[in-house]
Amino acid sequence: MDQEMSFIAKISGPPADLVANILRVPGDMMRNVVVAIEPPWAKGIFIAYFILLMVWVITIPKEEMRFKLESANKEISLRPFALLSLTTCIVIYLVF
Amino acid sequence: MALSALDYSIIVIYLVSTIALGLYIGRKMKSGDDYFLAGRSLPWWAIGMSLVVTDIGATDMIAIAGSAYLYGIVMGNYDWLGSVPVMIIGAFLIIPIFWKAKVTTIPEWLGKRYNGAVRTTSALIWGVYLSMGLGITLYITALALNVFLDLQPKILIVSETQAEFQSVVDATGAGKTHDFKQATTASEAAESIALHEPNLILIHTELAGAATMPETGDYPTVVYTVDEISEEWAVTVMEEARPGKWNLLYTVAIVGIIVGGYTLLGGLKAVVYTDALQCVVMLGGSLFVLAFGIANLGGVGDFVDAIKQMAPKAQNHFELILPADDASPHIWSGIFLGLGLVLANAYWLGNQTIVQRTLGAKSVQDARASYVLGSLLKVLIPFAMVVPGIVALATIPDITDSDKAMAMLVKEIMPSGMLGIFFAAFLAGLMSSVDSALNSSATIWTKDIYQRYFKPDGDPLHFLVVGRILTVILVFVAMGFAILASKADSIYEYTQTLLSVFQGPSLAIILIGVLWKRATGAGALAGLIGGVSFSLLLMWANKYATNKIFQIEDPFLYVAWWSFVVAVVLTIVGSLMSKPMSEERLEGLTYIRDKG
Questions:
Q1: Does the model's ipTM exceed the 0.90 cut?
Q2: Nearest CA in chain A to B340
């Protein structure tokens, strides 16, 4: 098994180098972009993602939010609960 | 870990309640639909709790706290970014479409949306992965249980340096299955021998000659030099070790039989309701540890101060965002792109083990509400799993194996009688992962392969019987895989890697299928096969190239991201090059047509 693995490693080297060199070009471009983004800006991206989702949740039609709570025999909207979990996350990202 | 009679009582009550609940639920089972989808009768609250507890296995309880011990609150991203947003997306975008299509599996939905080839390809990928993954889950679960109960064979290495100790451990390749202890002096060695009764003692030749070195008596002992340390040497040395009092495979068999038993009889309904019980026990037990841990340190302020005083070792322990060029594997770019945009979505929207319980919801409203409840519970999870790891750092700052942080914290702070609560929580996490994987695996093999190719016109009772037979077979396959994994580490690694290979492409074809009417079967097949192939190409090139493509050791987040991108491009190109699907065929299967 070990001999087979070392044989595979031996014959894989040159083609793997070729593929790696090609793929490294877009990879390095992307890496340079993300490395240039400082943590406070990165945090802004995270929070923006949550805000975008909140906006989307607010725009979802009322019918899709409707939920019949059988135990209490009444209808409620899921929207406040969805917004609560997203808002809590935003607060957490603002604190940490 | 020494458990008292009260601890054992709590554990026994918990286990008996779980099994009894599973058996009670299973008594009215009459069809394959009852078995695989609980007869579409599940309420939102049970599904929501089940979703959360299925995501957190016993090993996660150990590994997450262990990683938090090393890296801090950044591990919370895996829930706050990795679960909450996608569960909201799932609740209102994807899950209702799956539920309304009245399917049992995701491959079945892919078959309706695209074609039979996409369904079969996806079913085979998931079927094989889940069956293998079940064995691995069983294996790592048994390992975690053995660590927790202190049942692993012990090897004492008497060596003055940490580096030498580590090189011996690495050479043996038995770091997961054996408990390695280090002694740096003769007195430490004597103490360790008396305390641990090691199965093997390895002594560096210079220390072996010390006049104060204790007699090793009946214990198998090997004296070594640094130059000797190699994998070949380790193989010979490990043969000298006395067998442990408890074999890992006994744990595999016990877990397999208990979990297999109630899953076999109760199907998805038993899985979901026992999961709901397990969710209460697991969250309650973990939050207990958190409360005791912080109280033990003097309160939240003292806890935070204790960590801040540990800078630079713990300077980022309260930072959720780490720079993209940080040495940590949890840098923000990988977390956001790989986890937040791909892996988390693939897991919560495209993993059969997760999605199956929502397909068994009694209404589409219940399916939606379950994901919303899950997102609210997920906000709490890092407080129960991640923060205790940081509390462990403040309480016991010198733990060498971070994976033991949670167990050591529990041992240190929990009063006698309360250990049972945490241990029950640990068992809850353990059983919830195994039962879900088992049920989903049986579902895919029955519905997407057996029913489709061998018995399309079988009656409902027939598929109940087949599902149960397959569950039994899968328990034995899983046990076999667990045994293989215990003998060859590479199997464990390959299975872990397998998931990151197809998660991105699987997600790509689901999302495009839901959001874009123009997507076709040919495009999806090109995206799925091309994306998986690209993942394999990336991993192969990264492993064998002289200069690695990725600069971090375990690039699974990036592999997922790039394979997703490639699968999206191939699906779009392939779709545009093929004939559009008819409007009638797509009725109810895309978001655009289904809104409102």
A1: no
A2: A46
